[in-house]
Amino acid sequence: MPELPEVETIVRDLRDRLVGRVIREVVVILPKVVASPAPEKFASLLAGREITGLARRGKYILVSLSGDRVLVIHLRMTGQLVYYTRPEPFPKHTHLLFYLDQGVLRFTDLRQFGRVRLAHKRELDDVPGLRDLGMEPLDAGFTEQEFVRRLKRSQRMVKPLLLDQAFLAGLGNIYTDEALHRSGVHPERRAAGLSTREARNLCRAIREVLSEGVALRGTSVQHYVDGSGQRGRFQEILRVYGKRGEPCPVCGVPVERIRCGGRSTHFCPSCQKRSEK
DNA sequence: CGATTTGTTAGTAG
DNA sequence: CCTACTAACAAATC
């Protein structure tokens, strides 16, 4: 489940290996993972282009190419993007192969939810999903003030709000549960009902878990691997995600799991009260 | 063998 | 049109 730290790790890994490489040939094995243009056109438009840069926006991977084109990749739940220096036999669920002048970039996705699209650089802001993304929590321009202001404007429950990519870009189920626990906020609290102090704590906790996530190269609970196929280490310091029944590392009370906004949600009933402390 | 898992979007209700 | 919420998608794993 690649969230911001996982995507950031992949982008940094691949940047070192891919910038300056030239795409020789693209093989589309599962056409539906190519959102646009049509798979044949997608492949022919890519051949011969040089990779000039890699960037992240929310959970999107942006691969800049010569000729002002950009490859927009979203891994969704189980997508993987891994670079190999030599053409190894590719595993199950491999849907795209980018043969480069040196090495191969392989896109695999067990659940087939991930999507890849080739766009013009200037029409990037019109790409659905990318267009409506909210603030980048790790950007310098992201201020506590603005976060608190926007939080208090919403009547929604805080957890579904944090998962809304139009509100804040990059959080998923794991880091949201961890940030709420660290800031002592119950996931079902109404965003507007948080005190300023709680909202500020939440803001700091979000930045904290995301930075630590990046530092530990992501969370490998199930499928996530980085740009060279290695697992991350943030799962070693998870406090509540996937810990139902285990003692909260802060107070020892068993972690509970509920359904919130249709998502499984882990929290400590003692550290995260339903009403303001 | 049915329940569970998740990111996003399309759809509904108000 | 805006806000809040939910179903649907896919496929392996338990």
- Please describe the biggest sheet, giving its number of strands, its sense, and whether it closes into a barrel: 5 strands, mixed
Class computed from helices, strands and strand pairing: alpha+beta
Tell me the number of strands: 11
Q: Fill in the CATH topology of the largest domain.
A: Helicase, Ruva Protein, domain 3
CATH A-level architecture of the largest domain: Orthogonal Bundle
Number of domains: 2
Tertiary shape:
elongated
Write the layout of secondary structure elements.
Blueprint (H helix, E strand, L loop, with lengths): L3 H15 L4 E6 L5 E3 L2 H8 L4 E7 L2 E6 L3 E6 L4 E6 L9 E7 L3 E6 L5 E6 L23 H8 L6 H6 L9 H11 L12 H20 L40 E5 L2 E5 L10
Parallel strand pairs: 2-9
Antiparallel strand pairs: 1-7, 3-4, 4-5, 5-9, 6-8, 7-8, 10-11
Helix pairs in contact: 1-6, 3-6, 5-6
The structure holds a DNA duplex (14 and 14 nucleotides).
Brief description of this entry?
The protein has 277 residues and is of the alpha+beta class.
What does this structure look like?
The structure is a single chain. The chain has a 5-stranded mixed sheet with strand order 2-9-5-4-3, covered by helices on one side. Strands 1-7-8-6 form a 4-stranded antiparallel sheet. The protein has a two-stranded antiparallel sheet with strand order 10-11. It has 6 helices and 11 strands. Helix 1 (4-18) runs parallel beside helix 6, helix 3 (144-151) crosses helix 6 and helix 5 packs across helix 6 (196-215). By secondary structure, the protein is α+β, with helices and mostly antiparallel strands. It starts with a helix and ends in a 10-residue tail after the last strand. It has helices at residues 4-18, 39-46, 144-151, 158-163, 173-183, 196-215, and strands at 23-28, 34-36, 51-57, 60-65, 69-74, 79-84, 94-100, 104-109, 115-120, 256-260, 263-267. The protein binds a DNA duplex (14 and 14 nucleotides) through residues 1-3, 59, 74-78, 93, 110-113, 128-129, 154-157, 160, 163, 165, 172-173, 222, 261-264.
